[in-house]
Amino acid sequence: MTIKFDEIGYWSELKLEIVEKYGAAYANILKKQPFKKYYIDGFSGAGEHISKDTGKRVDGSPQRALKISPQFDGYYFIDMNPDKTAWLQNLARNRTDVHIHTGDCNEYLTKQLLPTIHYEQYNRALCLLDPYGLHLDWEVIRMAGHSNAIDMFLNFPIMDINRNVIWKNPDDPRIRDDDRDRMNRFWGDESWRQIAYKTTPTLFPDMLDTEKQDNETVVNAFVDRLKKVAYFKFVAKPLPMKNAMNAVVYYLIHASQKELAHDVITDIFRKYA
Question: pTM to 2 decimals?
Answer without folding.
Answer: 0.94
